[in-house]
Each structure stands twice: as structure tokens, then as C-alpha cells.
Amino acid sequence: MELAQAPRVRARTVFFGGGTPNTYAPDVIERLVAQLRARFDVPEGAEITVEANPDAALCEGFEIYREAGVNRLSFGVQSFVESELALLGRRHSPDDAGEAVRRARRASFENISLDLIFGVPGQTPASWSRTLQSALALEPPHVSTYGLTVEAGTPFGAWREREPEVFASDSLEADLYALAIETLESAGYEHYEVSNFARPGFRCAHNANYWANGDYLGVGVGAASYLGGVRSTHTRDLETYVESALSGREIPGESERLEGAARVGEAAMLALRTLEGVDIASFAERYGVDVLAFYEPVLTEMSSRGMLEVETSRVHLTRRGRFLANDVCAAFVNFG
User: Which of 70, 176, 205, 314 could form a disulfide with 118 if both were Cys (CB 3.0 to 4.6 A apart)?
Assistant: First the structure.
């Protein structure tokens, strides 16, 4: 933060991401939280999240986190099926995940989230249901469900090229997503964003800022920021990042200023991911754009296909639209 000369913005929330922050000793996290509070004027009681792998050896010292001001834990559980965890390369067991949640509660954490993945090779509706029910048994106030993303140039990418039939079809992924929605909504969770479900009062405030197209500052290797309409990303090369920071040079990376239709389209895309969708009056006030007039061709097409609900005060995804959210959002991003 100091060597890289991170700007001294005022923060409302803090998120330790990347999936594995609890690889660090708890006292390191404690010192980092203190430094963040001092540099970015983080208010008392602000949502401070630490992502964590639920490996038994790493789930120690949650009491230290809590004393430091961390008040939300997000566990990368992914699955409660042993074979699926092995295939995903995870080191924890289903029992480890349950124990991680219990340790968090003993350390006075109430705000706990579980990340789950569907579309894993070999996964069936039955095994996915088992994961969902196991998650519900732990009574987390927040659950995120993500379809497996396969990136080119990764072992999974190479595997899919060799054996595409092993991976979930679009129809199976849709069935698994529908099962997640039905299961979690029936259990009292609000489907407040395409991939996220929460009990009342437990929406993720940090992520809500992303969906509202708010400013955010990313600190660290590979970190992304969005400040004053400029989107930037630090280099993902750790050695280059460290050398630049130690020498006082600007951290290498990429940046672009979003203007005009690109800025408006991204804002619409982010808002559409949420339950509330695009608030027409607020959007016009912030961006000077009449959504109904500017996006009329897109709104007509998407509503005729049953993917958007267009009301006088807002535009939001239908249930069908949630399943094709990427296509709907792309139409707004690419328009104009």
C-alpha cells in the first residue's frame, strides 16, 4: 500500500479476495486490517470480508480476525461431494468445510458465506442437490453459486479440448442452476443477484458496490480498480509487481477510460444482474440517459423473447432472463 503509493481514498467496505487470504497467519491479516483502517479511513462496523479456503490446517485464529474488525467470512467450499472436490483439486473434505463454519461461529462470526460450483465434470442433479442440502444444513446466511468457468490454457481447458463430452452441456447447467434457485429460494434465501442468495439483511455490501457501478480500489498483484471512470488492472506477474513497488516505480498494468455508450452499457449490464435491475429515474439522473428511449431496440427484442420485464420505473431480468443473463447483458454492452 505504501510503496505502491495507493491513493488515499475513503473506504466503506474491505474485501480480502483471491480465495486464499487465510494462507497468511492470522496476525498478518490483523496487521493488514489495521493498516487499511489507518490509510483508507475505514469506519467502525464497516463490512470487512476475508475469503478463506476451508482446509483444516488454515482455519485457525478466527478470533484474531474478529478482534481486528473482520466481520464476514466467505468460504470457498465449491462442493460437498468428495469426488468433485478431488477433481477440482481442492485439499479440503466436506467435513472440513463444516468444521470451518463451526469454528467461525465459535469465534462470533454471524455473517458467513459459502461459494459453491455447478457444472463440474461428472456432476449430476443428485450430487448437486447433495451439495446444496449440505450447505443448507450449516445455515449460512449467504450462498453464492457459480457455473464452472473453463479458461483456455489451463489444465481444464486442455481437458475439455480432448474430451468435451465430459463437461456439462448447456441444458444440464441450466437444470443445475434451476435446482439451486428452487432449493435456496424455498429455504428462504433471496435471489438478489444472478449468482448470489442471501437471507434478509445479509446481502454482500462490498459486491453491491460493484453492481451499482461504484468506485473501488484494488491493492496488490493483479488487483483491479475503477476510479473516476477509469478501469485499471495491476500486472499479474508477482516478481514485476514487487520489483516495481520496492523501487518506487508505478505498478505496470493496463487501464482504460470508459466513456459514452461504453460507460452507460457497463452500468446497465451490472445493474441488470441484480434483483432490482435498472432504476430508470436514477439511471437518467446519473448518466443523462433515458433507458427506455436509448435502449428501445434492445428492450423490445429482449422483452419479446421473455428475458426482460420493462416497467415504468425499472427494467429487470425475468426468471428466464436469469438463465441467459450473459446474453442479455452483452446486448446492452455492445449497443451503440
Answer: 176
Looking at the structure, do residues 23 and 168 belong to the same domain, yes or no? yes
Residue type at 172?
Answer: L
Residues 224 and 166 both lie in one domain? no
Q: What is the pLDDT of residue 80?
A: 98
Least Cα distance to 255 among 211, 218, 215, 224 occurs for 224
Is the pLDDT at 4 greater than 70, yes or no? no
In terms of domains, do 239 and 272 share one?
A: no
Question: In this structure, what C-alpha cell is assigned to residue 7?
Answer: 491513493
Q: Cα(25)–Cα(33) distance, rounded to whole angstroms?
A: 13
Extended beta strands in 96-150, E state: 111-118, 142-147
Residues 21 and 100 in one domain: yes
| pTM, 2 dp | 0.94
Which residues partner with 279 through β-bridges?
Answer: 314
Whether residue 61 contacts residue 21, with contact meaning beta carbons closer than 8 Å, is answered with: no
By the 10 Å C-beta count (0-12 exposed, 13-18 middle, 19+ buried), 308 is classed as buried
Cα gap 323→177, rounded to integer Å: 8
Q: Are residues 182 and 58 in the same domain?
A: yes
Cα–Cα distance between 100 and 91 in angstroms, integer? Answer: 13
Write down the number of H helices and E strands in the chain: 15, 13
pLDDT, mean of residues 195-210: 97
- Mind listing the pLDDT tens digit for each residue in 274-285? 999 999 999 999
Distance CA 173, CA 157 (A): 17
Specify the number of domains making up the chain.
3
User: For residues 131 and 133, what is the distance between their CA atoms, to the nearest angstrom?
Assistant: 6
